[in-house]
């Protein structure tokens, strides 16, 4: 740790000129002991010699009084023994007890911080805060768990709920539920200074989050901020946090979000509301809340929108990513820019005004949330693509195969099944045999699939080809067209 040259100079002066100890210097200058020892060097302990002569008359301190006052003004916590050493070095021969008596009279008393007890009117203010209450297991890992609190400053009525996040949209949803619970809105919401509330602050000037401003405008509520570092200005909600920690969350392990919120709601109704009011001790919080409710601002006719809206890009697998999770969309939404509308319970995917998908909100990590109809649509497209790919393959090899297709359709055969059957024979017997057999089938006017397979087998035996080996390929393995190497080059005699 480095210190300013002015501080280093003062350390040396106080040690070598005033004979202060390293501990006293560190305490008075608010620097670490090791820094002081490094600057003054490793020195032996100094023995202090004090006069044992009878104490002088108090008048003997008069020449040093101004010096003592000056030192105490600069270092209010300086000990009398250290002052004694300083004036003793300057010629004072009295006792330290006499000095203590003088110091006790002239030492400046520390100014204690004074807190003003706020007596707010009914319906005037609600204080808002969050508190971390642990973690909770979710699919794919764990999430931090928070409790959101709102306290009416007059009645001390408390509303709280568990939340997963401290975002602006989460804050707005909780405030809506709190005002509904209280039966009205206060005239002020008092917050600390988190990013979900205030985006920028310089002195008293603050730029509130636009979502919060919209909500406050809807309820006609004034948002206010505590002074930076002055959490005591919202002491009622701070005490409510401590109250919940001690009375409800102590020793409690929450493993299910919904159950945890139900238990918390039961605590608020059965324990928090009936508790005695801290000021009006002859009444309960519930009774004072009944008095305060008519003073609250009336609720609007419609609840404000608190959903989060953002633009997302769907990937090639027809899914969108939000909060580490993937949500499915129909195949038509793949590789497109879409709109995501989220609440704490639903995730909706829109294409303009058209809703493509609606999913339950997943609070897990790295999960895939897929609707069955979306998966079926993708599979149908894949099968159609495979069928079209198979037909194009057959047409490229035998252009006249469309005639055979027409015969299969007339015979009531499934075009998809017959395409797969024909490609299977092509893979098993090879292009030479398959082409010859299809040509013969067309010439003879046949269309029975059994005849096609039988003729392929006859051709194989006639050419003394080995039996085809059928290899079962898993469904998840994609089809790939592999161009085989021309092996005839290897049959030519090697030229020397």
Write a brief caption for the model.
The chain has 496 residues and is α+β, with helices and mostly antiparallel strands. It contains 16 helices and 14 strands. Strand 9 (319-322) and strand 10 form a beta hairpin.
Order of helices and strands: HHHHHHEEEHEEEHEHHHEEEEEEEHHHHH
Principal-axes shape call: elongated
CATH fold topology of the largest domain: Nucleotidyltransferase, domain 5
Number of domains: 4
Summed up, the helix count is 16
Query: Any guess at the CATH architecture of the largest domain?
Result: 2-Layer Sandwich
| Fraction of residues in helix | 40-55%
Q: Structural class of the secondary structure composition? A: alpha+beta
Low-pLDDT sequence parts: 44-57
The separation of the N and C termini measures 82 Å
Please report the first level of CATH classification, the CATH class of the largest domain.
Answer: Alpha Beta
Average pLDDT score: 83
> Could you give the order of strands across the largest sheet?
3-2-1-4-7
